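Worked example (supplementary).
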Amino acid sequence: MVHDPSVADGEATAPHERRERRDAAAHRQRILAVARDLFARHGVGAVTMHAIAVAAGIGQGTLYRRYTNKGDLCRDLLHEHYERFTTELRAYLTEAAAIPPLERLDVALVRTLHFVNESMALLETVVASQMREMQCDGPPRFTRMPPRHESGQMWGHAVIADLLTEAVARGELAPLDVAYTADLLLSAMNPMVLRYQQSERGYSLERIAAGLRHIFITGIQPVASSVQRSKTEE
Amino acid sequence: MVHDPSVADGEATAPHERRERRDAAAHRQRILAVARDLFARHGVGAVTMHAIAVAAGIGQGTLYRRYTNKGDLCRDLLHEHYERFTTELRAYLTEAAAIPPLERLDVALVRTLHFVNESMALLETVVASQMREMQCDGPPRFTRMPPRHESGQMWGHAVIADLLTEAVARGELAPLDVAYTADLLLSAMNPMVLRYQQSERGYSLERIAAGLRHIFITGIQPVASSVQRSKTEE
DNA sequence: ATTATAAACGGACATCTGTCCACTTGTCAA
DNA sequence: TTGACAAGTGGACAGATGTCCGTTTATAAT
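After joint prediction of all chains, the assembly is encoded as:
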């Protein structure tokens, strides 16, 4: 067997690992540019995959080859912004390792909230697609490309869980179900939940942040003394 | 103007208030029966509105006349179960008015969790439809019947908010944003959130209940003394 | 250059939700 | 009874998502 150039790239899986065609890469850029433009002009929800394909001058099949669904495309559009967000947060968390974990959690929480809020429209589409994928009630769904399990959610979970674990270890927090609590916190910052709370219930982002902080960081219980007081009053 | 019989029914809006036709009522029953059967046999997600219409021997337009969407139909299917649930919970809350509000909240929380869990499939469809309604990103949607804003969500919110308010008033809880906290609690019991946590993250219902109780009732903060201790230890 | 081959392509298709609208039928007043 | 009319009906249709598959084309080995 002759020299396989793909090996040089560190890909040691299959022989003759064909890399992405140049024209395909060009298409990808065009799709992203066109989608960004259409989304900006008409809103994410009002733009169909068909419209994107037409505007990009490609077939719908080609579009779906690249992105299994609209959420996938949105995720790619968000990629740069998301990377910046995680990088900065990661940097903060390492350099602030000295301050109490719950204070770090507070910062992480507020920053995440803002990130989600800024990227609301795209993120909403991402999670909407994920939900549809999750259904799978009827016949199994086919997808040409395996849905690359973006580490997004899991990354966030790990960050929160680590901070909670540290807080418990330091005795700044009573022992608790760290994994579930992290999930709970994440679900409270789910784009769809957040949008509902903002547009249907009318909560400002600041109010939401304060509410979350109060529940998950300050703690909702009063100090033991006040409970005692109320009981003796009766 | 002659005597208007509709006035006798307490409906003082329009004259000649025409009531639902008998045959229409029969259709309604048949739709519900057929849908229940199909859902049971193939799963809620796998049954289309078209299939329901065909199985019920009516046109799709007729089906959509009665129910603006699948979620609406599911809500009607759930109606009896839901009524029983709210009635029982209401009864408990009145008769248990003597015990501390936070204990009542605990009971309400666990019962709600179980109700949602039992009705998962239908409720999921209900909220999925609500989400689609909420989007409205593009052109406004038309619906033949006004989407009767089921009091479901709001009822739950009021119940939780009342219990929290009472707890604060009695000094058993530090003052907090009652309205937002109630929403937060509800969002944690959202069917889609719950399903994700159970099937994707693998949490049991008991674990979820315990986690919720710990955050929203026990409180996540340790008593002040343990914080002090950890600080002096360093 | 030639050629084999897998990647890429594109648009017809299948399916689902929800709407429209011309037609039918039950109901009520006269 | 009868006739006016709004409620009810059904199926074609519009618009979206996502799939299939016959065809084209970039790439790499020869």
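Two points are worth noting when inspecting this output. Residues 2, 5, 16, 18-19, 21-24, 48-50, 60-61, 64, 68-70, 132, 141-144 of chain B lie near DNA strand C (CB under 10 Å from a C1'). DSSP finds eleven helices and no strands in chain B.
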